[in-house]
Amino acid sequence: MGGGSMNGNNDEILKRLEKLSSTLIADSMKFENVMNHKLKPVNFQKPLVGQARTVSLYPGDNLYLHLGIYEAKPGEILIVEGKDSTTSAYMGNLMAAAAEKLGIKGIIIDGLIRDKKELENMDIQIYANGFIPKGPRKNGPGAFDIPIQCGGVLVNPYDFVVADEDGIAIIPYKKAEAFIVKAEEKLIYEEKRLKTIMSFNLDQGDDKSTIEPSWLRENIENQ
Questions:
Q1: Annotated binding site
Q2: CB within 8 A of 37, min separation 6: which ones?
Q3: Which of 76, 104, 119, 194 is placed for a possible disulfide with 99 were both Cys, Cβ 3.0 to 4.6 Å?
């Protein structure tokens, strides 16, 4: 299980994560802990960074998502195991509006939602697999704050979340520091490499080898 709610160290980690992207985090984790391509942002505004509170739902039933909205703290992100159900929408504009008023930063559901037009105009950021007008049951069963799988990724309560237009990465709480250091190093490398690429001028006779990846020929030879 993850490590407790917000504290000073977590605040510092979140500040560092805000400077990174889902792609940098994915690279640092060797492409693990990245949710599948089905999950798309409904109303992307800026990268969504925070700590997870987890919800497990029975397919087509949103009882425990309601509970999660009222149990989560301001600044947290609800990660919802919808089990990729297509029977009905798990959430609409009323639930999202309540979550927004309660300070929840985002909701990520591997299932369907509804009220697309209204959700697009909200500040709370939503990720889901798609839309359907049919509403859900509210009978349970379900669970809150347990290990879940969402978008093919294991998520524990209080794991760190980075979501943007490329997708969603989950950083295991206990491994966050190591992965963030690697992502920060990759960011420095990419900025330096992009500068080198942008300074290249074919018309002036610059040698292609100056921007060719150092590993390219060796990897080709090792095929």
A1: 92-95, 114-115
A2: 167
A3: 104
